Amino acid sequence: MTAHSTTSNGSQNGKNEFDEQHITSYTSSSDEQRHHQDEEDNYHLSTDSGSILKEISSLESHDSDFTILSTGEYKINRNIPRTYLNKDDIEKVTQSDIFPQRRLFSFLHSKKIPDVPINDDERKIYPLFHTNLLSNFFLWWVVPIIKIGYKRTVQPNDLFKMDQRMAIETIYKDFDKNLNWYFNKARKNYSNLHPEANEQEIRDKTRLPKLTILKVLFFTFKRQFLFSCLMAILANCTSGFNPMITKRLIAFVEKKALFHDTKVNAGIGYAIGACAMMFFNGVLFNHFFHSSQLTGSQAKSLLTKAALDKMFRISNYSKHKYPNGKVTSFITTDLARVEFALSFQPFLIGFPAIFAIAIVLLIVNLGAIALVGIGLFIVILIVTMVVFKSIIKYRVTANKFTDARVGKMREILNNMKMVKYYAWEDAYESNVQDIRSSEIENVRKMQYTRNFMIALAMSLPNIASLVTFLAMYKVNNMGRTPSNVFSSLSLFQVLSIQMFFFPIALSTGIDMIIGLGRLQELLETAEEDPKSREELKPSADLDPSIAIKVENASFEWEDYELLDAEEKKRIESEETDKQRMKRLKAEAKLNKDKKTIESKSKENSKSNGNIDDTDKVKTFTKFTDLNFEIKKGEFVMITGPIGTGKTSLLNALAGSMKKTGGRIQINGHLLMGGYPWIQNATVKNNILFGSPFHKERYETILRVCSLEDDLKILPAGDETEIGERGINLSGGQKARINLARSVYRMEDIFLFDDVLSAVDARVGKLIMDECLCGLLHNKTRVLATHQLSLIEKADKIIVLGTDGSFEMGPVAEMKKTSQTLINLLQFATESKKDEENNEDQKVDDEAQEAEEKDRLQKEVTNKANEDGHLTSKEERAVNSIKLGIYKEYLSAGIGKWGAVAIPLYILLITATTFCTLFSSVWLSYWTENKFKERSTSFYMGLYSFFVFGSYIFMSMQFTLVCHIGVLASKWLNLRAVHRILHAPMSYLDTTPLGRILNRFTKDTDSLDNELTESVRLLLYQTGNIIGVCVMCIVYLPWFAIAIPFLLLIFIFIADHYQSSGREIKRLEAIQRSFVYNNLNEVLGGMETIKYYRSEERFLAKSDFLINKMNEAGYLSIAVQRWVAIFLDIIAVAFALIITLLCVTRAFPISAASVGVLLTYVLQLPGLLNTVLRALTQTENDMNSAERMVTYATQLPMEAAYKKPEMSPPDSWPNKGEIEFQDVDFAYRPGLPIVLKNVNMSISSGEKIGICGRTGAGKSTIMSALYRLNELDSGKIIIDGTDISQIGLYDLRRKLAIIPQDPVLFKGTIRKNLDPFNEHPEELLWDALVRGGAIEKEELQKVKNEKENDKGTHIDMHKFHLDQIVEEEGANFSLGERQILALTRALVRQAKILILDEATSSVDYETDGKIQARIVEEFGDCTILCIAHRLKTILSYDRILVLEKGEIAEFDTPWKLFNNEETIFRSMCGRSGITESDFSRKD
């Protein structure tokens, strides 16, 4: 392998601000010239699953060329999947096993089971553009897949591989080009109107005209979409001209009835002509649908990509406006509606053609009187338009509630542990229930309105013909022949089919316009200034020894509330009076639910500073006039009390904080470590993060980041999968993996944010010595930290004060001159001499080896399988939906009314079908005056009865289905919410968040909107087909012989189709969930990805997953259309038999009866197709129902939440005594015991410190107390009550916890302390004072504070109850979040308090204050404190030392310290604790 330097062309999406400097590229020398090949030509390489796996497994492979940037990561090359995919990514999306199937017609097929293709060489390219005309005409090219699917379950590798022309990259290029054209035009207009605006303002404030995205989509897919429209017009024309042939046919039968010797030649010609016209109608219709559905699928894909692409570029304020929950809702729900809508839009284009043909032919047939019926059509059409305005209103309102519900579900799922600790399940459930009820109320109104309109549209031809024929009777006494009457009735029927699809096309079009409008707002929102990164580049005259130079620089966090207020003002100023009234009404309606401020994080700590030097608790927002420089190779520490902006300073240096003045120069590649974001991937892939594997370097980094011991005890070492957001890792492990990921990159400047806070002293010292001061000794390092015991290692120190001061200098000097640092050091333990550790180190390492094995029973292993995989595979149903699912779905919708509802529904279908068909039969009686003695009014009256009866019964039938469907959807969703809230943590830890969220977004949306639609269509049209068949048998008894054969052929085709079509659709659903999981993960780790300049890699991965989803999606559409064409052929054969029987007069049948028959028989292809499409759509939507039913009925549950009969008295526990008796605890049945034979008694009000080496089982005590899992044996007794005997609610609400990672919810501080208004306001204020958030003497003043005149909270106290909390508490520093967690615990007024390393992330001064508060405020409580910092628990009554899950020592701190043999003594030695640190010596 040869390495040589090349220069980057910077074409990788413009992503790397420094990439142009140095790139190393590796090529196999024999294939040197291949390096310059065009990526596009070889695109299909990127989905070659078999070869990818081989390729990724070994870096030394010489199969492909690749380029490595100077910072150590791969340069993205889409021809070489190794550069953007992990091995696991491929395995997940291409896993293909063989599952043979026995089916109804298996005996007709050979017994040989086809193999699954191993790699892309064995797979064919998608044949749409690579097959002959005839094969494309009948879509015959899908048959090989149908055959495979009939013999065994279809797998991902069976599908055709993506054609470059249809790949997401290709179509996105066109979309992007078209979108940019509109953007450039809009920006030009803006700059003409605002000549004083600068470039950034023009970019931020330009708004696109309405419907721009729709236009862009049109120009992107114009050829495909126009083809679809052409097919729709031609299909409509064939259906419009068919009644002309029918007219001749009826006239011929009439003539033959009068003149028996008439030759049948002409009649046979008419019969064949009518059937040929039907056939072409079917084929054209299906090609239109194929093209439009393909367009819908591609539009959804590229808009998903566009949204993700945009999220990488948006500004901080835009992130606040578009939090992850909102973007997820766009992509999952709105884009599914866009896809559905696009497939129907060509109906609107084809409508005028058929309308014109129908008008002309009706006037020819019936004369000018036909205009009466046509006029009615037009009136109803206008009414439909008006009614759809109210449907829009309901949809918009429902959307707001949907967003709120999805946001609430995200909040619950992200913070499930907190919900369980605080026993908030019921409160959250009722919260979701309220939002869901409001959402369903709007969905129901929308559905009911739509149903009445669809029923009216479907009854319209009969009503129009009724009005026309009644008028005709009055004008010329019905002087028209059967041929005229029934060909006119056929024309009205043709218009009816259009009227059926017209409202669907219109309503889905409205959904699409609303969805695209929301997406357009996202795409035009403000972006980061692209020049801001450029400005960081060093000037030519910068001293080369300087790494970072800051000159007169000012930085600030924007005031989102103020910007929100300005935005609102701008929108209001552009409103008309009418729009304003509508908005105020809508707002009033929404406000009864909640006042939400959507948001996303600014960063991890933006708090006190120099806005107001005199009031330190106002919100920190800016730095002013900073001047400092950091030389290359220097190690600089940033420290200061909580909330002074340490993380903000790192963000300012990294370019994430808005610069308002001055200059900053970065000389070299800079990397910000940031928040420890962990991917759902293996440990190894989390560390490599897009860089090639170098064994030696990798092992060194594991050692210096102290990860070797952790890996030894993981089930598959570094190949162990980590759960989403690192759920199966401790805080320390996450921090170290994050550190290893940073260090693995070959950067010049490293910014670290408190990487030492979550690790114990020994590990912290090792990382400092071996990593920060060892491996990185020649790099520039900036570390924000509270660990002052290690400041001697720094070259310089930056101290930020609560008064907004900024001081920098060498450590020795700053120790004398900086008062802030002097104060902080008083609380910190001075670092001991290095020699102190040497003595213990060897013994410690040996003990460590054995002790770490214990983690096997804790962090990961208790959840991961032996191959290291933690996440359970997406459940994929195979074959048809089980009957039980239908039963559950129905019972959710009708409950105990089943015995009434089902017979009533069958009765309504029968009545609807009878009235619809018999109205035409009655018309034939009237035409031939069957009952001679009856008057005309008798015929007219009954004809009117059947026509209007049909409409009334149809409306009732549709409403009943809708009512059942909406209720089922509501209750299944709420039951699923209930079960997910009560599912054990082990289930939630092993199921990806994206998958759970999918149930509450896409699946719920399917049940709300699509399932009722397809069920209604299926049942109505099935009734119609049965009615038509019965009518044919009544008129032509011999026809009964043909029905079994036709039924058999129908079942044969449908069975073949369903065995493949169903599985392909399911594959698409699974691949879609990979796309959504990836999307969720990327949105969560956006900051980290940007810090690592890895945007292009994650976009390439997203494209790969979208293409995989589309391989199934495109084929699914083609298979649906293939089966429709073949069903058309059956229906045409059916119609041919009927028409020939009529023409040859095999039965004595009148011309009027022939008219009736042909009116319906010629609709059969459409009916059969509609039934199969509705059947398939119903089954596809029932997949969503199946998943919802599974969640609603089968999710594992924790023990009983409430046991009223065992409920302890309200005053329990009044003492707080805890007793463990022979407690054995495992994380799941069958896994190793983690706590072994624990016996101890804790007295009332006792303060117990719990310590032990990492993984000794400290946090497991907490899991046992909270019953996150049940005990294996033994019992825990609190105040004489065995906690396993009472409900979880009664137990958990009586305990209080301050966790290691404090969780804050979006909303206000009031909502965070008391989310469900269970406590009086005075208690909340009191808790804020007692928790140290507000000084007692300030309380009254703080209470009186109000919003400022701009409507923002910026001038209010940081901890005012109405102060806004951003998503995940991002506008509070870690220390401030800890204070709020303490306050929340105070609000609970519990007798037992558990602290889980609660102060590990704050500085020593704050730690001291919090500990003092705890002692003071929880004086009469029993406290269990799990501690990293031993100093915090030296004043406790007793210390519990755990070793390998057993109690090793349990005595007073002083006694344990004085015994030199104890583990506690050795831990004190390593932490530098001496006798003088003990305040209690008993």
Topology:
Elements: E1 2-6, E2 23-27, H1 49-57, E3 66-69, H2 87-94, H3 133-137, H4 143-151, H5 168-193, H6 199-205, H7 212-220, H8 222-258, H9 265-311, H10 316-321, H11 324-342, H12 346-366, H13 370-414, H14 416-421, H15 425-476, H16 482-523, H17 530-534, E4 546-556, H18 560-573, H19 577-591, E5 622-631, E6 635-639, H20 646-654, E7 658-666, E8 670-672, H21 683-688, H22 695-704, H23 708-713, H24 731-744, E9 749-753, H25 761-775, E10 780-784, E11 796-800, E12 806-810, H26 811-817, H27 819-827, H28 835-852, H29 883-894, H30 898-927, H31 936-981, H32 985-990, H33 993-1035, H34 1042-1084, H35 1086-1091, H36 1095-1143, H37 1151-1161, H38 1164-1193, E13 1218-1225, E14 1235-1242, E15 1247-1251, H39 1258-1266, E16 1273-1278, E17 1281-1282, H40 1288-1292, E18 1295-1298, E19 1307-1308, H41 1309-1313, H42 1321-1330, H43 1339-1343, E20 1364-1365, H44 1374-1388, E21 1392-1396, H45 1404-1417, E22 1422-1426, E23 1438-1443, E24 1446-1451, H46 1453-1458, H47 1463-1471
Parallel strand pairs: 6-10, 6-11, 8-9, 9-10, 15-22, 15-23, 18-21, 21-22
Antiparallel strand pairs: 1-2, 2-3, 4-5, 4-7, 11-12, 13-14, 13-16, 16-17, 19-20, 23-24
Helix pairs in contact: 1-2, 4-34, 5-7, 5-9, 8-9, 8-12, 8-16, 8-37, 9-11, 9-36, 11-16, 11-33, 12-16, 13-15, 13-16, 13-33, 15-16, 15-31, 16-37, 29-31, 29-38, 30-31, 30-33, 30-37, 31-33, 31-38, 33-34, 33-37, 33-38, 34-36, 34-38, 36-37, 36-38, 42-44, 44-45
